[in-house]
TrEMBL record:
Primary localization: cytoplasm
Leader sequence residues: none
Name the record gives this protein: Synaptosomal-associated protein 47
Gene: SNAP47
Domain named T-SNARE coiled-coil homology: residues: 356-418
Amino acid sequence: MNEDIRIHSWPCSYYLDTSKQWVSGRLSLTPVAIKFTADKTGELLVNFHLSSISEIKKESSNLIFSSLTILEKNTKHWFSSLQPSRNVVFNILEHFWREQLLSSQGAGAEAAALQSTKGKELTGLLTGSQKRLEDTAKVLHYQGEQFDNIMRGLNKIEGDMDVADRLLTELESPSWWPFSSKLWKAPLETKPKETATVSDSKNQEGIIIRIPVIITHRTDSNVKPGKLTLFASGLEISDCNSQVIHRFESKDVDDIRVHTPYEISVRQRFIGKPDTSYRLLSAKMPEAIPILEMQFSKKIQFLEDALGFVGARKSPQVDLGTSIWQAATGLLGGVVQPSSPVGGREGMDNDQVQLQKQEKISQEEAKELKQILKKLKGLALETEAELERQDEALDSITTSVDRTTLNIDKQNRRIKKLT
């Protein structure tokens, strides 16, 4: 992720202590830093890392009203005349500051990250691939349940069509036919079992991912912190107290726009009344966007500032659309012992890969990498089997729908003859 990308910027004034005066300009937020650029000179007056911040506060005095202060190490920075409001800027800055501290644990973790070994890099990359594949499996599992529910519904419709067929046969039979009253009574007792299974699957639905977000409703200038939860069946927006603000089922979402790697908007259109639209900003949004892209592939749109994020994610090493095993083989190619007979894909499948004990790859890291690869292999096989099963289910659904349509047309013709 490009650390220089600008997440947000706001017009404001900055108190320049050296000249004892206020300077108008723009306060900018990037994924890792805060900057202030003067309007007149274009000079960068403030530039410091989020991890160096000790405190962010809303303050005021007799001379300075509605100001925001940021304590960076031993320096206190004053910002005033913030647009659209001080509260909006405060909520967004505090969110990214806290998430930065939680993810990196400050500058100490940043320095440690520079010393990370090749083994840790490989482990992190493969763990990310494993998480993506697990999320994919959850969505596919839910889709499989929906296919099963559709099949049960179609079977019930076919059963009802049989009942209707018997009823029509009775109506078409002459009055003297002795068996007409008994033709359609037997199957009527098989009704009330289906709806319970549908609701049970809804209750058992698991959470794919939950991230903290800053929420803006429609075009309101006020923002508030909350949470975004992604399910296989849709997404849910809630406040800090876990009270649901709005839930979008998959069918309700008309479009999702990715403004930046950290900001999206979700909209449901209506005729004759305002659209339901939410704008969501989060430091964790890059983790949620791939899942949204998978669930809403035809409804998601990447705007200009987010196109670089798409390109970076779809590199050969990260994209799960390419073979997991090709990525894993490329990653581990540099650490396989020269003497070990890899033999193309078979060596990987038979767990014959031996990781070289170089100074950058410890024995523990090699063991962890092998375990992750084993899990990835199992997940890939399960996903492939589920896709094949859904393929067959889709064929069965298509056949059943065609058969039901023909039956409906046939019964319509019979009803017309009776009337």
